[in-house]
Amino acid sequence: MNIDFKGEHLLPGHLGQFFIVLSFGSALLATISYYFATTQTNKLDLSWFRLARLSFYINTVSVVAIGCCLFYIIYNNLFEYHYAWAHSSRTLPVYYIISSYWEGQEGSFWLWTFWQAMLGNILMWKAKSWEKPVMTVVGLSQTLLASMLIGVELFGTRVGSSPFILLRDAVPGPIFSQPNYLDFIKDGNGLNPLLQNYWMVIHPPTLFLGFASMIVPFAYAVAGLWQKRYKEWINPAISYSLFAVMVLGTGIIMGSFWAYESLNFGGFWAWDPVENASLIPWLVLVAALHVLIVYKNSGHSYFTATFLTLLSFVLVLYASFLTRSGILGETSVHAFTDLGMFWHLVLDVVIFLGITIGVLVWRWKELPISRKEEETYSREFWMFVGSAFLGLSCLQLVIVTSIPVWNAMFKTHIAPPANPVSLYNVFQAGFAFIVTLFLGFTQFLKYKKTDTTRFFITTLVYLAFAALITAVIVWVSGVYKLKFVFILVMLGAVYGVMANAKILAAALKGKIKLAGSAVAHIGFSLLLIGALIAAGTSKIVSQNDKGMIEVKGFDKVADVRENIMLYKNEPVNMGNYKVTYVGDSLVAPNHYFKVLYQKLDVNGKVQEQFVLKPNSQANMKMGLVSSPDTKHYLFHDLYTHVSAAPIKEEENLTAGSTSAEHGGGDEDKNYEPPVTHEVRIGDTIRYREGYIVLRNLNKQPKIQNIPLGTNDVAIGAELEVVAHGHTYQAEPIFMIKDNNTFDFPRKVDDAGLKLRFSKVIPAENKFEITVYQQPERMKSYIVMRAIDFPYINFFWAGTIIMVIGFLMSIFRRNSELKVS
Amino acid sequence: MKKSAILGIIVIAVAIAVIISTYSNSSTYGSFKDAEQTKSELHIVGHLNKEKPLYYDATKDANYFSFYMKDNKGEECKVVFTGTKPQDFERSEQIVLTGQMQGSEFHANKILMKCPSKYTQDKVEISGAATPTKQASI
Is pLDDT above 80 for A693? Predict the structure, then answer.
């Protein structure tokens, strides 16, 4: 059955698909040509080499073209394409169109292949004699990535997943039997509200640049073994490893910043499998980098350096398998789902693992492995031990995160640890203590041989000072209440800062080029200090002891009750603050809740006040999603997030104003039974939450659309409502028209009131005012949670300092490359 | 003994310790029946019984949420969670609870829910689809 569909734009999709096939073909051709260019013996024959370069250029162009086609489709809301329909919508602003671009797996694979193409071009420009073998490996990786996007049927199974698949091909539905089905698809699904955050515009590209750049040290290692240039590959690999470690590290922390700003789990790191998956290769590459430096300086640990470098890239692919194959389904909320690429991803890991094992076994006998013992008092020995511990910390992450993989492999049913966060925290803290201790005292050691007496004196003096400072920090910040191992981490991190500060001070005097590692180490240690205090001593400010239902033994399981309830305009004391939910506003699609924080001094005078606006998004497709708002101080952050609010009711959207109302009697069920009051001008009516004063009468009130005849009368009662320190005006109207009496009530939503001017009693000069009061549960409220994160700025500052350190190291290593 | 050998032994020892501790810390998947028989924490996989009421009234207690869940063996149990109702709970297709039995109620301290529709919308939810005369306005 061929239907002539109307309104479809098939050209960009066909073009895009063409470029995907072209990128796959050209990458494959580049790989093969680079392989033969490397292996051929006739050095004057440049035909393979030229062909290889040409195909890689074609690959780069086609990868960019794929991106352009996809962007065109998303930007123009061509919802006949599944990708645009699933990830974008018409209301999305342009900068979020960019993030919707990589919300799907196909988009993130594209990002990866794009960065890899860019890196390939840099290598073709810079790698010189290394180009042929290194680019063979990069080409292979590029080929495999392109195959993930290709989305063609091969022997009855679909290989890869193309972003250019049409909606009618991707999703079954009776609607697609109509030629004009596009008329009914008004909008796409839109972007998950949690991803509508500026960090999501830059976090994925940074992360994927980090992942992509890890191919380069791998490729150099393979090339080095393949070409028997066993020692030469180390130097360029160090530079590229530094770059990869820097970029991936930045990407990971950006992700944690996004989590902190946009997710509501209340923190910046949760040991979620997806987070772990990005951390695992990073830790291994950091270890590899240190052992590479060890080898460069001492000639020891060649095998470990090579092995870790190779392994780090295999772990990138393994991480990709974990997050994309759907295997983590039951353990992670945000693991991507299976796109039917399980075995494709497994194959990817197996190929590169095979290469790793293959080259090592192939060249095993020739590897320049030093048979000499390392000196105990040498820097290289302890750097090596430290790297081994980094590797072990990674091993723990891999083993625990991979529980679903073990289950799949061995047909077991092990559930992940019931409390993974504390398990990871304790273990990783143990490793962090050892690693920071090492990154401290190795600074006092020299390569090859150190004078032991001097070393012990400096080390111990610094350790004693560090212990002293740690004691102060631990006492002031309250870290002493935590498990002992966290105090050890603090000691290690403080020691790391101090020891490296000494090196930095020395470097500033003369050998400035050596400062990079010291700065990076200081940054890393500060990051640990910040993370430890912020996560370890964060306090739930919004503790709630009201309305507790005591269940025996239950308190042991549950945390403190973390949510408090705020009725509109009713201040509640919360910690040091008086908080009031003062109103809400709707900036579609976000619903902002204004929470006023006031800090009072002893005399009740306001010392400090500010408004936080946590929001919830009432998203048609994805339901309610909340994002926190945070008040940043220099030494702590106050994080506030709305965990529940009655925002689904339409009428609440207009709350916040005093609205007029005509008729609508059954609406009264929203109120408690009315109470009538007979008052004179100037009298006060008391009600549960405040009082109402009849200020005056208005003889000529405005009534819309009702012309008054000569015998008709209308009077407005000018009422002043005072509730919870706020004053509102309301003017209900009483009217006699054609000898019938009417009245027009007025609502004061903020005070939960409806007021009627129900009768005039001329004999007594009195007026009857009927007060309808909303019961508690009908009033506007929010349930919110507030957390105080002390010293979290150390965490962010540490990150920035670490990145600066990496940059300095890259410059240093690059200048060394030029000299040698 | 060579230093590298000593280091190797330490590394292997730590690795074994990691594996053992992982195994001993990992809990087990179970059913509500298993939960009645043990005092330790369990993971229970199941789905929400959408016919029975969810109870969450922030005006009474902002930190109390209860619902009924059927585990994978079909057994139903009341579940109590101290906290607010997770957003979109009604839409969940699968729930993983961590917690333990308290009397006849299961007290969860962690709820992990899966709403696959959040990530793969493989249903065309177009109001125009069923009744083409009505214009979709989403």
Answer: yes
